[in-house]
Design goal:
The protein is mostly helical. It has two domains: about 220 residues, Glycerol uptake facilitator protein, CATH 1.20.1080; about 30 residues. The chain is about 70% helix and about 0% strand. It is built from eight helices and no strands. Helix 2 runs antiparallel to helix 6 and helix 3 runs antiparallel to helix 4. The termini are far apart.
């Protein structure tokens, strides 16, 4: 993930390689596919473990498919965090969020009409339980967004050399953990586009703002925390290691030259 100055990026709309439009289509397709997986899983019952692993595996598969093209955001909270940390332009962020919301909604509508009505009882999952106040729900969604974005920033840090599939697995496991720990209290929203798709179908907009404000604000805080503290603290160690390596290579070359001189 590279750092750039804040840019509107509207010139990307006219780029000859059409990278922006290809990436937006990838985000649309990824959100569509993810919500087909998640919707079908949630429609089968109230088993929180089953739902958690279905969502986590869905995130993993979708990121493997589209991650190298668009970055595999498939979540407005991720896109906003990347915008704040100057990883994407304003134009790209807006197009991504629109694509994510449209893809998620279409995916959920697809599942609704593919499955029989008897399977729909498990879909009202993005709700606060009776003992959870709006403030508690907001705090939970904030924590979920914070942990998700912290995992993403760590997985794709330029100072690491992880394989793409390993990064995707880390993100999928984070989503799984979020659903396992807090899924019973808020439904484990974590992704505003997913929650929007369910609300659009069932018309349940109660405390809908929690599922946008919580993950997005949590993602912004994670971006600030990682970029300003964790990412910077890694750089001196890497520079020191690189200097030691260069010194080692230099000393080795000097010894080789002296050895050649002695032989001569």
């Amino acid at each position: 993930m590279s750092h750039n100055k804040y840019s509107c990026g509207f010139e990307e709309f006219y780029s000859k390689d059409h990278n922006l439009w290809k990436s937006a289509i990838a985000e649309f397709f990824g959100s569509l596919l993810l919500n087909i997986f998640a919707g079908a899983a949630c429609a089968q019952g109230e088993d929180i473990i089953f739902k958690a692993f279905s969502n986590g595996l869905g995130i993993y598969i979708v990121n493997v498919i589209i991650g190298k093209l668009s970055g595999g955001h498939i979540n407005p909270a991720v896109t906003v965090a990347m915008l704040i940390s100057r990883r994407v332009t304003i134009a790209r962020a807006l197009l991504y969020i629109i694509s994510q919301c449209c893809g998620s909604t279409l995916g959920m509508f697809t599942i609704k009409y593919l499955l029989d009505d008897i399977y729909h009882y498990g879909w009202h999952s993005y709700e606060l339980t009776e003992n959870i106040s709006p403030f508690q729900g907001l705090a939970i969604e904030f924590l979920l967004g914070f942990s998700l974005l912290l995992t993403i920033f760590a997985a794709y840090d330029i100072n690491t050399r992880n394989l793409h599939c390993v990064n995707c697995l880390a993100i999928g496991l984070c989503v799984t953990l979020g659903h396992l720990t807090f899924g019973r209290y808020t439904g484990g929203g974590m992704n505003p586009a997913n929650v929007l798709s369910v609300a659009a179908i069932f018309g349940n907009w109660d405390f809908h703002w929690i599922y946008w404000l919580g993950p997005i604000f949590g993602g912004i805080m994670a971006a600030a925390f990682y970029v300003q503290i964790l990412e910077i603290s890694l750089q001196p160690k890497i520079i020191e290691a690189a200097d030691k390596y260069r010194l080692h290579v230099f000393e080795r070359e000097m010894l080789k030259m002296k050895s050649n001189e002695n032989c001569a």
